[in-house]
């Protein structure tokens, strides 16, 4: 098969005119940087978790590009086009990847907390009263939905108007996409709470099929795309990470994240990201394996 793209996490191969194969690697990335360390068994957990959630989505009546797993770390999917010039899209264009990442947040954490501390996002924007003092890891009164770019080197936040302009979506299609993301999350949230987990936030991607019907693509509900916490620990006031956020927090602790953000703000070249210590590699691998088992109810081995 012809290699179409080697991404941060997976390699994409052309099977035929209508199908692609995703091969999930053990690579790991944070802050749009590939870390020079691999996480044992990570690729397999992503592929198998993704397959599980695609099955749930289809039971909800949501279309997906998923065809099936052909190996523990290899997934066949329907092929969609990546458009070279999205400005040429019309409301009749079909079978293409929508160049947006849809993010739904349920707690104030991560980059959302950063923006709260910086004063760039106000309490009322998140559904709180204007005089509310927001706390770290506080549950939001309503889901917070936002969009970022998908195909740019570094993801950037988009307004609804910007998103419609670069994606070729109509307003009705945008609302349908948002509803689909929230419907999937309702299923994720209800299931993981029964398994002792909290779903703090997540990311999804969409495409149009050959009839311009929306379908969810890539993967979702995994340790890479979503943030999960241990429910018991959260009830005692601690956010114990059960996702890739564990790795992000490591780079925050050692100061790399602050250095990276400062450099990007000044327009400089990103500093190289250091490899992970072996102890963090092994802990991360176990997080991915255990989360797969807790989410799916399946044994990894």
Description:
This protein is of the alpha+beta class. The protein has eight helices and 13 strands. It has a single domain (2-296), classed as 2-Layer Sandwich (D-amino Acid Aminotransferase, Chain A, domain 1), CATH 3.30.470.20. Helix 1 packs parallel to helix 8. The longest helix has 23 residues, at 171-193. It is globular. The model has no long low-confidence stretch (mean pLDDT 95).
* Number of alpha- plus pi-helical segments: 8
Q: Based on CA inertia axes, which overall geometry fits? A: globular
What proportion of the residues form beta strands (DSSP E)?
Answer: 25-35%
Name the CATH superfamily classification: ATP-grasp fold, B domain
Main features:
13 strands; globular; 8 helices; 301 residues; six-stranded antiparallel β-sheet
Strand and helix layout:
Layout lengths: L1 E5 L3 E7 L2 E6 L2 E4 L2 E6 L3 H18 L6 E6 L2 E5 L21 E8 L2 H9 L20 E11 L7 E2 L1 H8 L3 H23 L3 E12 L5 E4 L9 E4 H5 L9 H9 L2 H10 L12 H19 L5
Antiparallel strand pairs: 1-2, 2-3, 3-7, 4-5, 6-7, 8-9, 8-11, 9-10, 11-12, 11-13
Helix pairs in contact: 1-8
Short description:
The chain is an alpha+beta fold. It has eight helices and 13 strands. The protein has one domain: D-amino Acid Aminotransferase, Chain A, domain 1 (2-Layer Sandwich), CATH 3.30.470.
